[in-house]
């Protein structure tokens, strides 16, 4: 089949997310100017540069108590910092609990039963026990096409790595099976890896 998105796909469910998958999940923790914590997962997330290391995530909807966006973007506008927590398979249920649309004053760490740990170099909490966490300083927020679509870019200024994930000096994802988002309500986990050498290596 072929379809133009502006004309509709004619299927029972939108296939776009299922086509662009699997996608890593950025579990974004922020704190507002008053000191209230927020935690929310975003599947439009990825690393985008090595030097300096940079990441991005996109927020695509809004809440009534945040005007044109959601808590994560609003908090980053205020403070300029955020933390990306990597989601392991064993944390899938608490990650999902933190995705609930809650009032801005509700702490998702507390709501989902997740212990917060202070970041080291930014004023923000991170998920205790996450396989890795990236402390980030926002570099820009870009408004893209669509009413509530914002892309947040950040420079990684601090990296936390859980000790048991380091095997022979390498960050080994098979030690924790990162959770990835697919289409619809589907998820998957990474449990097997293989190497491919580039032709010019």
Short description:
The chain is mainly β and 201 residues long. The chain has four helices and 14 strands. It has helices at 16-19, 71-79, 92-97, 108-112, and strands at 23-24, 26-31, 37-42, 45-49, 54-59, 81-86, 116-118, 125-127, 132-143, 150-161, 166-167, 170-171, 179-181, 187-189.
Question: What would you say this structure looks like, in words?
Answer:
It contains 4 helices and 14 strands. It is mainly beta. The chain has one domain (23-165): Roll (Pnp Oxidase, Chain A). The chain is globular and about 50 Å long. The protein starts with 15 loop residues before the first helix and ends in a 12-residue tail after the last strand.
Largest beta-sheet characterization: 7 strands, antiparallel
**Average pLDDT number:** 96
Order of helices and strands: HEEEEEHEHHEEEEEEEE
Task: Tell me the distance between the termini.
Answer: 39 Å
Q: Architecture, CATH level 2?
A: Roll
Beta content: 35-45%
How many DSSP H or I helices? 4
Total number of domains: 1
- What's the CATH superfamily, by name? Electron Transport, Fmn-binding Protein, Chain A
Kindly provide the name of the CATH class: Mainly Beta
Helix content estimate:
10-25%
Q: What does the secondary structure layout of this molecule look like, with pairings?
A:
Layout lengths: L15 H4 L3 E2 L1 E6 L5 E6 L2 E5 L4 E6 L11 H9 L1 E6 L5 H6 L10 H5 L3 E3 L6 E3 L4 E12 L6 E12 L4 E2 L2 E2 L7 E3 L5 E3 L12
Antiparallel strand pairs: 1-13, 2-3, 2-6, 4-5, 5-10, 6-9, 7-8, 9-10, 11-12, 13-14
């Amino acid at each position: 089949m072929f379809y133009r998105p502006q004309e509709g796909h004619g299927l029972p469910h939108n296939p776009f997310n299922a086509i662009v998958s699997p996608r890593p999940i950025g579990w974004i923790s922020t704190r507002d100017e008053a000191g209230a914590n927020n935690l929310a997962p975003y599947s439009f997330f990825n690393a985008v540069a090595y030097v300096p290391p940079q990441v991005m995530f996109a927020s695509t909807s809004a809440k009534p108590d945040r005007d044109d966006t959601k808590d994560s973007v609003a908090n980053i506008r205020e403070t300029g910092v955020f933390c990306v927590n990597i989601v392991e398979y064993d944390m899938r249920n608490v990650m999902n609990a933190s995705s609930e649309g809650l009032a801005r004053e509700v702490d998702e760490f507390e709501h989902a039963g997740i212990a917060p740990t202070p970041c080291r170099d930014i004023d923000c909490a991170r998920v205790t026990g996450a396989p890795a966490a990236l402390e980030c300083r926002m570099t820009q927020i870009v408004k893209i096409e669509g009413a509530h679509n914002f892309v947040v870019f950040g420079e990684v200024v601090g990296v936390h790595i859980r000790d048991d994930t380091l095997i022979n000096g390498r960050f080994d994802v098979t030690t924790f099976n990162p959770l990835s988002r697919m289409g619809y309500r589907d998820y998957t986990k990474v449990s097997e890896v293989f190497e491919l050498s580039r032709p010019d290596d």
